[in-house]
Amino acid sequence: MKDNIISKIIFLLLFAVYMLIPILATYMFSIAVRWDRTILPEGYTLEWYLKTFQHPYFIIALKNSLLLASYTVMVNLILIIPAAYTAHTRLPWVKLQMDLLTILPFGIPRVVLALALIAVFNVPPIARSPFLLVSACSVFSMPYMYRPIANALEAMDLRTINDAARLQGANSRQILIYIIGPNILTGVVSGSLLVFSAIFAEYTLAVLITGARFKTLPMLLVEFTRRDGRIASAITVVAFTIAMLLSITIIFLARERQKAQKIKR
């Protein structure tokens, strides 16, 4: 028993080291004066961060990435929550089709998806617009949102909840917003974080659909990767830190809301 616990601890430590070393190395490289001739950096500086924030396209690219990820999350929530709720309550036979439909984006390469959308929606003002990019990102990220929400719905006794709510005079919209919504909050938060993280770092769809007309942070990162790896590391650190802080904030707010609901009950 003791040997089993020790082996689990060793495995967890090795996994933590495996995950943390690339992140720590990126952080160190972003503040290194030079780091290609010795084991440790030859000096430390914040010059690369200053150059990053002084770049004229950095704030624009950061804002575009945040907007793209946020709009994609909103589109997924608006489309998937009612669809998943309807499939699990009124049309149970549709659940299998929805499961298969949400798996399709994993099997379609993003290059193929982008080129297909460009060819089909080649009509101004939709052609190569941010609207088309948000649509493509919503299709691509759909499985990340659907699966956590579907799991949360399957963990509930929806039939009993629906019957009880309708006996109290609630309609479908009220049931979904005031009863089902708070109970699937964990799935909504999980799906939103997965979608936000995936789209915030999305490069292929953005560069093929909008290109330089709607420059995102990953596009700027690729440009600097070819020119100066230290500035590219600084951009990576900034993007990772922003995504991490937003994730922590969303999780904290969701937990506080759940605590407030428990107190009311």
Q: How would you classify the helix and strand content by structural class?
A: mainly alpha
Count of spatially separate domains? 2
CATH superfamily of the largest domain: MetI-like
What is the number of strand segments? 0
Specify the CATH class of the largest domain. Mainly Alpha
The termini sit apart by 42 Å
Strand content: under 5%
Tally the helices.
Answer: 12
Please state the overall shape, judged from the principal axes of the Cα atoms: globular
Largest sheet: none
CATH architectural grouping of the largest domain? Orthogonal Bundle
- How confident is the prediction overall: mean pLDDT? 84
**CATH T-level topology of the largest domain:** MetI-like fold
What does this structure look like?
This protein has 265 residues and is mainly α. The protein is built from 12 helices and no strands. The protein has helices at 2-30, 47-54, 58-89, 95-107, 110-120, 130-154, 158-167, 172-183, 185-200, 204-209, 217-227, 229-264. The longest helix is centred in the C-terminal third of the chain and has 36 residues, at 229-264. The model has no long low-confidence stretch (mean pLDDT 84).
Short description:
The chain has 265 residues and is mainly alpha-helical.
Descriptive keywords:
265 residues; mainly alpha; 2 domains; 0% strand
Helix and strand arrangement:
Layout: H1 2-30, H2 47-54, H3 58-89, H4 95-107, H5 110-120, H6 130-154, H7 158-167, H8 172-183, H9 185-200, H10 204-209, H11 217-227, H12 229-264
Helix pairs in contact: 1-12, 2-12, 3-6, 3-9, 3-11, 4-6, 5-6, 6-9, 7-8, 9-12, 11-12
